[in-house]
Write a structure and sequence with these properties.
Layout (H helix, E strand, L loop, with lengths): L11 E2 L15 E6 L8 E7 L4 H7 L5 H19 L1 H8 L12 H16 L2 H12 L7 H17 L4 H5 L5
Parallel strand pairs: 1-3
Antiparallel strand pairs: 2-3
Helix pairs in contact: 1-2, 2-3, 2-4, 2-5, 2-6, 5-6
């Protein structure tokens, strides 16, 4: 029996590999091989961070619960819409007490309400840690800050009605 020497070999296009220091940030990098369906195109390697934010890391390491994680993501979205979004910048250009605030887009109005509710519910020290970790992706510097983060996200999850059972069993309809 004669073995065939015609074997298919897959070429891999690597592109630019990240520097060695990048492998240490964000929990390291994952290397994904993306196979091409077209046989003429080579496969490519893609590098991406293991954790895109400290919230992902804390949830994966089970330092915070899933309901707290969802509350942190909701706060992140609302904070970025209300503070750094384009509509928020134009809204800040006009006076806050002017009637123009009534004409804000619905998503921006909900984001303002969500952030205002977080400011009303949380104390200053807890709010500072929640803003640092959720909005600015800075990891908690100490175990005390991690406790404050857990407390703050748990309070926001209670306030916004996010329970772990609701997240596992979403209602249809």
């Amino acid at each position: 029996m004669k073995k065939s020497l015609k074997r298919t070999t897959h070429k891999v296009r690597t592109g630019q590999a990240p520097c060695p220091e990048r492998f240490q940030h964000g929990g390291g990098l994952r290397r994904d091989l993306i196979k091409s369906h077209d046989k003429r195109k080579p496969s490519t390697l893609r590098y991406r961070a293991r954790w895109s934010s400290p919230l992902d890391r804390y949830c994966e390491m089970k330092l915070i619960g899933y309901a707290q994680y969802e509350a942190g993501i909701r706060f992140w979205k609302a904070y970025h819409r209300a503070v750094s979004g384009g509509a928020a910048c134009s809204a800040r250009a006009s006076r806050i007490d002017s009637p123009a605030r009534l004409c804000l887009p619905d998503r921006l109005r909900r984001a303002f309400a969500c952030v205002e509710q977080a400011y009303a519910v949380l104390t200053a020290d807890v709010l500072g840690v929640v803003i640092d970790v959720c909005a600015y992706d800075q990891p908690a510097a100490s175990p005390q800050e991690l406790d404050l983060l857990r407390k703050g996200l748990g309070r926001l999850a209670q306030e916004w009605g996010i329970a772990a059972s609701e997240l596992c069993h979403r209602k249809k309809g």
